[in-house]
Amino acid sequence: MMKTAFSYAVIGTGAVGGYYGSLLQRSGKEAHYLLHSDYDQVKRNGLTIVSVDGDFALPQVNAYNDPRKLPRCDVAIVALKATANGILSDILPCVLNETGIVLLLQNGFGQEDFIATISGVKTIVAGLCFVCTTKTGPGTICHQDYGSVILAQFTKDGSPGGITQVMQRIAADLTAAGVSVTTSPDLIDARWRKLVWNIPFSGLTTLFQADTARIINWPPMQQLVKDLMQEVVEGASTLGRIIPPAFVDKMIADTRNMRPYFSSMKFDLDAGKDLELEAMYRKPLEAAAAHGRRLARIEMLYEELSFLQEKNRGWGKRANI
Amino acid sequence: MMKTAFSYAVIGTGAVGGYYGSLLQRSGKEAHYLLHSDYDQVKRNGLTIVSVDGDFALPQVNAYNDPRKLPRCDVAIVALKATANGILSDILPCVLNETGIVLLLQNGFGQEDFIATISGVKTIVAGLCFVCTTKTGPGTICHQDYGSVILAQFTKDGSPGGITQVMQRIAADLTAAGVSVTTSPDLIDARWRKLVWNIPFSGLTTLFQADTARIINWPPMQQLVKDLMQEVVEGASTLGRIIPPAFVDKMIADTRNMRPYFSSMKFDLDAGKDLELEAMYRKPLEAAAAHGRRLARIEMLYEELSFLQEKNRGWGKRANI
């Protein structure tokens, strides 16, 4: 049997990884953070969470700027931008122990297939985060709203993985850290449900530099949001996953009730970073296209965002990422 | 029979009305121009056309700032923005003589139905202008590219109006003025053909503040342009008008070959003016919807543009028009 408590290596200590890592550490779990540009600051001052649930600071954290210096852990929390996943081939073999668990906190589709090929990775649990957090400075994360996580087991053939023991242990740790957790027996179903919100709002807040409240309160855009959500439901149905209409209605209602929010994609655009267009748009479109279904509005949003990114780069010049 | 030469009243002496009015005047036709904000300047200095076909100036023109001072003419060239058509009820009864001809140089759909109700209007010929012109200052118009006009006769029931004698006379005048003119027996068909270009490029140059070359040279956007054009073709087909695929291909090829261009809608946005969204998007969408067809991408572009306009107005504050 596995030892009593999981230790956690946080790969990508940004808005998401820093937030959940800090919650786990605060609840007494062993946590180690891999950092890049924020290393000096975090090594010196730790992490600060400014949160609607109450602010807290961890003045001392285990910070590393080199994966080989990080002690091997049971679970690697991968919370990089999906666009940076290429570097995981160098990182995960150094930071995982024989347990070999990856907790993948990323949006979008199909990242697991690549991660599963990396040496030392034995099991992947995806954590779908319904959370509004923003890194506002080195080591400082603002938690604006929500925070729940859906956990689901990755399987190579895409079949439902059920509720595994590893999922249950991670769920217990996150619950003890104060996170609202649910477990899903079917990752594909959970991913498409998450896309119901992400596909309209990541794209539209970025395209228009307008927050969720502006969008949902302008009737033609509310119609567009509903139509985009409906296309996600159609996409899911091509893979045999049935999302009920009530789920779409709830996403609309939740958006109305949440504090005005910009997606992290919008902040990536502002910072001249690559947008997560492949994981969030292209791969779901491909999955539906493989079953003969074109999703016109999602396709259009993807095309528009790719053009906006190109414009933002100064038409053909590459940005510093 | 009608007298030898038509006289022309230009209502809306902007990029389009000023351009074609000047060409008619230069060729010896009697032309009278109704102006508003540019009146003083044009009264004093006339009109200047900076054109790829050769610059010319008309230092003295018949300029008026009051429709009641304008002598009655055979033809009123209506070249206002469609959003300003409401004022035509006050203008046309003053400027038309018993001939009562309107030459409507506007994009989009369904403006004729309203204009046909105005006292003194007896016949409406629509002129669909394939021209890239921009008003660059009071009385100064820059003609960048193209310039041809398709003329078609309006009929109240939307049936093909044939090639009428009035159309032929206007065609002769425009041809003598150096304009490439073709006549269409079917206004509805001609309008939808024009929308094949206008729907993608008016909207996308406005939405992205990007010129036609940027758009057509970015492969995902070229795909979007083609898909939007295909939806226009579908819309036309619901009204029994068949636009062949070669027409779409030609529009793409022409756009590639033309000088980089921003639509007038983009300049309207920059100037804080109302966008021609009703005439260019909503009415064609309604026409297709009346035959049970939703055009997803055109609908989305309309929704996005309406949101952009709302944002541009400062979220709910009305702009000065």
Q: Roughly how many Å is the radius of gyration of chain A?
A: 19 Å
Query: Biggest interface between protein chains, with counts per chain?
Result: A-B, 25 and 25 residues
Identify low-pLDDT runs of chain A: none
Helix and strand pattern of chain A: EHEHEEEEHEHEEHEHHHHHHH
In whole angstroms, how far apart are the ends of chain A?
Answer: 42 Å
Morphology of chain A: globular
Q: CATH H level of the largest domain in chain A: which superfamily?
A: NAD(P)-binding Rossmann-like Domain
Multimeric status of the protein: homodimer
Largest sheet of chain A: 10 strands, mixed
Overall average pLDDT of chain A: 94
Number of domains of chain A: 2
Description of the molecule:
Chain A has 321 residues and is an alpha/beta fold. The first copy, chain A, has 2 domains: 7-185, 3-Layer(aba) Sandwich (Rossmann fold), CATH 3.40.50.720; 189-312, Orthogonal Bundle (N-(1-d-carboxylethyl)-l-norvaline Dehydrogenase, domain 2). Chain A contains 12 helices and 10 strands. Chain A has helices spanning 17-26, 39-45, 88-95, 111-115, 165-176, 187-208, 212-216, 219-238, 245-257, 264-270, 277-289, 296-312, and strands at 7-11, 30-34, 47-51, 56-58, 62-64, 73-78, 96-104, 123-137, 140-153, 181-184. In chain A, strands 1, 2, 3, 4, 5, 6, 7, 8, 9 and 10 form a 10-stranded mixed β-sheet that branches. The longest helix of chain A is centred in the middle third of the chain and has 22 residues, at 187-208. The first copy, chain A, is globular, with a radius of gyration of 19 Å. The A-B interface holds A 207-208, 210, 214-215, 218, 220-221, 223-224, 227, 296-297, 299-304, 306-308, 310-311, 315 and B 207-208, 210, 214-215, 218, 220-221, 223-224, 227, 296-297, 299-304, 306-308, 310-311, 315.
